[in-house]
Amino acid sequence: MTAEERDRLVTRKKAKKKLITKQAAAEELGVSVRHVRRLLLRLKKEGDKSVVHALKGKPSHRRIAEDTEKEAVKILSAEVYRGFGPTLASEYLRDEHGIEASKETVRQWMMRGKLWRAKREKVVEVHTWRPRRSRFGELVQWDTSEHDWLEGRGERLYLIAMIDDATSRLLARFAPARFHRREHAAVVELPGEYEFAQGDQDARFLSA
Predict the structure, then answer these.
(1) What pTM was estimated for this model as a whole?
(2) Alpha carbon of 16 to those of 20, 30, 66, 134: distances in Å?
(3) Cys bridge to 205: 90, 140, 179, 199, which one at CB 3.0-4.6 A?
């Protein structure tokens, strides 16, 4: 018994003992599930020698797998199967042509046959790191948030927060929502002067 015959026998015995499914055995042997059932009946009737008898004059497992792939790719190249994905293609190969193969196997066949492209992974945009400014007041960023901060006990307010880029120093104040943006700007005062202020996207506020 050759190494290939021994491997095929092991696969059949695993299927017989239900250690693997008939589908898995079919994929390992490169045959249909229906043929696996016939092989198991022969194994039960003839024993280990059934493998040797069955392989006499037959092509190798590798050759069978290659031929099956070529046949499947040829079938799926037809116009009627244009646009089929691996899942649907595997179902049609099984139901219409008797070729048993998993979705993943069919996907590999289709990719090698230029019938399917692997989906591109989504590129995640990464924000470029920006070094902090070197001194206090060089850049001040501010943000605003309108909310019912008083929970119905008073008018709506804006929370105005300003942070110094160099020191991360934070100053915040509340201001009535009815105020004009110039009045809002006067609510939060940083000690000294700042060179540049970067605001949020709120229509009430503009970058200085």
Answers:
(1) 0.34
(2) 8, 17, 26, 75
(3) 199
